[in-house]
Each structure stands twice: as C-alpha cells, then as structure tokens.
Amino acid sequence: SGNWSEDGCRVSWTNETMTNCSCDHMTNFALLMSVDQPNLLDNIIIDTISHVGCIISIVALMLTIMIIAVSWK
Q1: Dihedral (Cα; 8, 9, 10, 15), 10-degree rounding
Q2: Looking at the domain assignment, is residue 29 inside a domain?
Q3: Is 2 inside any structural domain?
Q4: Mind telling me which residue stretches traverse the membrane in this protein (predicted)?
Q5: Residue 4 falls within a domain, yes or no?
Q6: Structural domain containing residue 54
C-alpha cells in the first residue's frame, strides 16, 4: 500500500517528453512534475508576496487581540 504498482499496466509508447501507459483496470494515475528550471524572478515575487501577506495577517491578528482586550467587559 502506498507504493506504485505496475500490475495490470504496460507502456504503450514513450518519447523524450511523454510516456503513455495502458492499464486493464479503472484506477486514476497521475504524475505531475515540472521539467523546466524554476524562474528565479517568479520565486522572488512569490516569496515577497507571501512575506507581505504573513506580515499583514500578524498585524491584523495583533489588532484583533488588542481590540478584544480593550473592549472586554
């Protein structure tokens, strides 16, 4: 369980970028991967957006806690 099994499947054809398999049972198969090198600029932009989003979330959480603490009766 949890491992890739080749039972009931065979390679129909393959080339440099794709492999097509045929199976005699109804199961979902998928393998997703990127063969391209990651774009450094995209990674920098995503990291920056993630950091800004985390900072905004932390500030909003702190403000919420302060407002609740002040208005607590």
Answers
A1: 180
A2: yes
A3: no
A4: 49-72
A5: no
A6: 9-71
Distance, CA of 41 to CA of 47 (rounded, Å):
10
The pLDDT value recorded for residue 58 is 98
- Does residue 41 belong to any structural domain of this protein? yes
Give the position of tokens 């080339």. 15
Instruction: Give the C-alpha separation, 53 to 49, whole Å.
Output: 6
In the chain, how many domains are there? 1
For the segment 18-68, what is each residue's pLDDT rounded down to a tens digit? 888 888 877 776 777 777 777 889 889 999 999 999 999 999 999 999 999
The model's pTM:
0.48
3-class secondary structure per residue, 6-19: CCCEEEEEECCCCE
- Cβ–Cβ < 8 Å for 21, 9: yes
Q: What is the pLDDT of residue 54?
A: 98
